[in-house]
């Protein structure tokens, strides 16, 4: 389901060329992909039956319901720990754990990773794929999208994976019935885990009492954040349903 191999030939042009976010890139998609795989590994990984299939996975969203949860040890006891976006562990170990196997990010949410962590890029637009090779090496000349971008990030370029853009279309269509503008990072990570892990434990998902997707490490500034362009309620309901039928285990934390 997930490839880090050259996906240009297997991605229908309707998906490959059509960005989910506004894209100022005029580059040809296949050229961008060609350049990308000159920097990061170009091999099939995570085919469903492949040797890379994982045992238990902890998918850790960024919800404030992790605060005071003491889930840290439990999260760390999974074979694989998946975190996302700006999630810190330092200072929050008791609640969120310390290990990270995969860190799921996109250019606007990228942080530095340690060299044993796998950077899983979710591409939302062609520019994201253009940004990556430079950001992993000498510095990207793409420094602005709808937000300023890091010119360089620290991460092991031999452990970079790029999610096939088709996967987002599949999740939006098959799991969300096209609700929300597109799936959230967390929901993508969760569905991906169902495909590559034998057991999926889910932490750090859920809005606060006011309906906002708050973070465990910060005080909410934008009180009207809600769940942004994503259909947080629909995603959460699907997650709860999956939990009820034992496809995953949802750890609800403390609601705030
Ligand atoms: O806010 P951010 O996108 O970095 O959070 C990562 C993911 O965690 C979100 O995409 C969402 O799926 C989930 N989340 C959540 N409830 C929150 C905050 C985040 O379900 N309060």
UniProtKB/TrEMBL annotation:
InterPro entries in the cross-refs: Beta-gal_alpha2-3_sialyltrans, Glyco_trans_29, GT29-like_sf
Catalytic activity: a globoside GalGb4Cer + CMP-N-acetyl-beta-neuraminate = a globoside MSGG + CMP + H(+); a ganglioside GA1 + CMP-N-acetyl-beta-neuraminate = a ganglioside GM1b + CMP + H(+); ganglioside GM1 (d18:1(4E)/18:0) + CMP-N-acetyl-beta-neuraminate = ganglioside GD1a (18:1(4E)/18:0) + CMP + H(+); a ganglioside GA1 (d18:1(4E)) + CMP-N-acetyl-beta-neuraminate = a ganglioside GM1b (d18:1(4E)) + CMP + H(+)
Similarity-based family: Belongs to the glycosyltransferase 29 family.
Species this chain originates from: Oncorhynchus mykiss
E.C. number(s) listed in UniProt: 2.4.3.2, 2.4.3.4
Oligomeric and partner information: Homodimer; disulfide-linked. Homodimer formation occurs in the endoplasmic reticulum.
GO cellular component, one term: Golgi membrane
UniProt membrane topology term: Single-pass type II membrane protein
UniProt keyword terms in alphabetical order: Disulfide bond, Glycoprotein, Glycosyltransferase, Golgi apparatus, Lipid metabolism, Membrane, Secreted, Signal-anchor, Transferase, Transmembrane, Transmembrane helix
Residues annotated as signal peptide: none
Pathway field: Glycolipid biosynthesis; Protein modification; protein glycosylation
PANTHER family: ALPHA-2,3-SIALYLTRANSFERASE ST3GAL I ISOFORM X1, CMP-N-ACETYLNEURAMINATE-BETA-GALACTOSAMIDE-ALPHA-2,3-SIALYLTRANSFERASE 1
Name by which UniProt lists this protein: CMP-N-acetylneuraminate-beta-galactosamide-alpha-2,3-sialyltransferase 2
A UniProt-annotated Pfam family: Glyco_transf_29
Biological process, per Gene Ontology: lipid metabolic process; sialylation
Class of enzymatic activity (EC top level): transferase
Gene Ontology terms, MF aspect: beta-D-galactosyl-(1->3)-N-acetyl-beta-D-galactosaminide alpha-2,3- sialyltransferase; beta-galactoside (CMP) alpha-2,3-sialyltransferase activity
Subcellular location per the Swiss-Prot or TrEMBL entry: Golgi apparatus membrane; Golgi apparatus, Golgi stack membrane; Secreted
